[in-house]
Amino acid sequence: MDPQSPAPIETPRLLLRPFTDGDLGFVLRLVNEPSWLRFIGDRGVRSLEDARRYLDDGPRASERRHGFGLRCVVPRDVGAPAGMCGLVRRDWLPQPDVGFAFLPEAWGKGYATESARAVLEDARVRLRLPRVLAITNDDNRASIQVLERIGMRRDGTVRPPGEDRDLLRFAVDLAPGAP
């Protein structure tokens, strides 16, 4: 691993590590899954080169700029990427938000909950963030359940710039003494 790369986040079952060029095929598949396109949106990733651009302009740029970003989630018993999870900094939200997406074959195994919980702990301990948000469509029941499991509470709605639909906004306070 590159000495400039951030340290992985580890849980008993998962490794959340920075993306590498070896993950390009996985990223290409994930961002074109019907669930991604429905709930997150089309990122225009149609080739391995597009996947590299997506990583360079998104997760890798965020790690350099903010010290956090989306990470590749690898179940230890499988050894291959199953999804992504991490913090995203959007200029239209007042705090970073936790995001996650997994391949369909990884659904129902608790990976989203376990990885998102680990990301929140990293946000609290390493990054010392006082508050983290999350956004999701009101019909994305699986994501809403994950957010509630990790202690996030509904905090209103937000309309992203250029969109015609509000998203549910969730929040969790991470500062000591927070409820």
Structure class = alpha+beta
Identify the strand order in the major beta sheet: 1-2-3-4-5
Average pLDDT number: 94
Approximate strand percentage: 15-25%
The largest β sheet comes out as: 5 strands, antiparallel
Number of helices: 6
Account of the protein in words:
The chain contains six helices and eight strands. By secondary structure, the protein is an alpha+beta fold. The strands form two sheets. It has a five-stranded antiparallel sheet. A three-stranded antiparallel sheet has the order 6-8-7, covered by helices on one side. Strand 1 and strand 2 form a beta hairpin. Helix 1 packs across helix 3 and helix 3 runs parallel beside helix 4. The radius of gyration is 15 Å and the shape is globular.
Q: Which key terms come to mind for this protein?
A:
179 residues, alpha+beta, 5-stranded antiparallel β-sheet, 3-stranded antiparallel β-sheet, 24% strand, globular
